[in-house]
Input
Amino acid sequence: MRKILIALVVTISLAIGMFWFYRQEAKTSVSLEQQSQTPVYTYSIVKTYPHDREAFTQGLIYHDGVLYEGTGLRGKSSLRRVELETGKVLQIHPLNRRYFGEGITLWENRIIQLTWTSQKGFVYNPETFEKLREFTYRTEGWGITHDTKRLIMSDGTDTLYFLNPDTFEEIGSIQVQYQDKPVTHLNELEYINGEIFANVWQTDLIARISPQTGRVLSWIDLTGLLESESQLSSYGSEDVLNGIAYDELGDRLFVTGKLWPKLFEIKLVSN
Output
C-alpha cells in the first residue's frame, strides 16, 4: 500500500509539474522584438458593453445586430445569442456535458461549433439552434473562422488548418511564424479584410496573420484592457483575453475574454 501511495504522489507531482511547465511555456510563447519591422498596434476604447461573467468565451461572432457566442467548460459549454447593448442572453443551446465547447463561425447561414478534445464539431440552424449535423476532425479544436472559400481552424499549436466547408475535409494548412519562429497557442480566430486575427492564448496579443504565407503581418497589444485584475473571477489565470468579432458593415471591432465582465469595441492605434 505504501508503494502504491508513493507512486500515486509521484504521478500527481509529475502531472502538476508538466501542467505548470505548459502554462509557463504558453505565457512566453511570443516575445515582441523592439527592433522588429513588424507593426504593433495599441487601441482606444470606443464603447464598453456588459458581458456575462459566467461565459467562458471560446468563440464570438457579430451578425445582424447581435452577438453569437460559443462558451466552454465541461457542464457549462453552450452556444448563445446575445444582445450587444445589454449582454442579455436571448437564446442558449447547452452542449452535452461530455463536450467542452470551443470556437464558432457562421458559414452560409449555418453556425459551426468546435469542441476541444472530442474531435467533434456541430452545425446548427442560426435561428433555432437546431443541430443539423455533426462532423469530425483529427486535431484538438480551438478557434474557427472562414474566408470566402474555406473554413480556417486552430488547434492550439502554430498550425492553422483549412477545411472544405461542405465536407469538413482538411484541404491544407499553414505554419504561423514571427521573426522566423513559430507562434504557438493560436486560439480564437476572426477573418477581417483578408487577414486572420488570432488570439494568442495566455497573452494580451492578437496576431494578424497572412492566410497565404502564415507570416505575422502585425500585432495588436491589448495590455490593460481591463482596468484591474480585481474585475476578474476566481478562475484566475484562465480569465484570459479570448474573443474577436467584427461588424463588417459598421467597421466595428469587438473583443472580450473568458469570464470577463465587459466586452469592448475598440479602434486600432498605430504605435
In short: The two ends are 62 Å apart (CA to CA). The mean pLDDT is 88.
